[in-house]
Amino acid sequence: MSKHNPVQPALRTENIRYAVRDIVVLANEVASTGKQMLYLNIGDPNQYDFQTPDHIIESTYQAMRDNYNGYSPSSGIKPAVEAIEREAERKGIENIRDIFVTTGASEAIEICLTALVNDGENVLTPSPGYPLYTAVLAKLGVIENPYYLDESNGWQPDLADIRNKVNDKTRAIVLINPNNPTGSNCSEELIRGLIEIARENDIVIFSDEIYDKLLFDNVGHTSTASLDKDAPIITFNGLSKNYLGPGLRIGWGIVSGDLSLMEDYIEAINKILRARLCANHPLQYSIQPALEGDQSHLGEMVEKLTRRRDLTVEMMNDIDGISCVKPNGAFYAFPKIDVDIEDDEWVKGLIKETGVVVVPGSGFGQVPGTKHFRIVYLPPEDILEKAYKAIGKYMKRF
Known about the structure:
By secondary structure, the chain is α/β, with parallel strands linked by helices. It has two domains: 11-51 and 296-395, Aspartate Aminotransferase, domain 1 (Alpha-Beta Complex); 54-292, 3-Layer(aba) Sandwich (Aspartate Aminotransferase, domain 2). It is 39% helix and 16% strand. It has helices at residues 19-31, 54-65, 78-90, 104-114, 131-140, 159-165, 188-200, 259-275, 281-284, 287-292, 296-317, 343-354, 381-395; strands spanning 38-39, 96-102, 122-127, 143-150, 156-157, 170-176, 204-208, 233-238, 251-256, 322-323, 332-333, 336-337, 356-357, 359-360, 373-376. It starts with 18 loop residues before the first helix and ends with a helix. 48% of the residues are buried.
């Protein structure tokens, strides 16, 4: 019998990492030993005591019963696109040039990166930032060009660092606002500074605003594109966080700016949209009811999250060797740890010893020499309190 060579995977997969889910491999191993686990690692509200609003679910059922089960237009159905446009206008976005519905905001992000960036070019990404961007850029073979958020300034973007990182191969800059993993909400002044840098260097801005309605302490949100109607900006959003439907996999992109600068790029995006057919058709019928229907769940959600945020910050800052900047939005905190080992090893030890599952800061990016971990404070207070006491006990050994 002849010997066959093993199938070799594509080189582009070598550098793909996704820390949020990669850590689950270890957590599953520990869980299999019978240890009670406390999961603070996945930003999925529906795993805890949050539920998708009924009117969003019912609109999807009705669409299926009405047999909207074939293909939709590649960019999305008209009622959804029009509802997204009205929502964008309410946020102050002008010069809207295109809107497209995708399989979650992550598909919109991947399509827009694919349509823009060539080999050897780079994209400025926030550090700390959501690891999806790192994974997609690795898959595309594009250079990630991280810029730092300033922990001493409430995790706001460091504009001086951004200016230093821009070069003639930089094609885009990503702003995640509110930020995952830090929960920071970017000030209008900082956003204007970022737009100025982008305009000076002909860079497209990717503004990821998936948590824009989950803000605390009566703080408002500024949509990047609302501050400059001519700058080339793509605004990403979806139903996963604000509308408690992460598994619905419905997101969108809104292209705004000077059409003379964007026309060819918009066509490139649409080539990819047409090639992948469409997002889930019946689920697109939930977009208009979500954006324009009953919003009462948001008040209840923010109230719950505010209590859990406050508990998180208080208990983390009470632990020797841990400090935590107070988040303004989303449902994440990014505490800093003062330990003699890398945060990856610290997290592995935490999971094995206590069953508390968090994600190491290295999975999101951080200033060299600093160590952090991300907490998802979606669980009820009693679970959070138990987990934080376990973290405090574990920290005593360091």
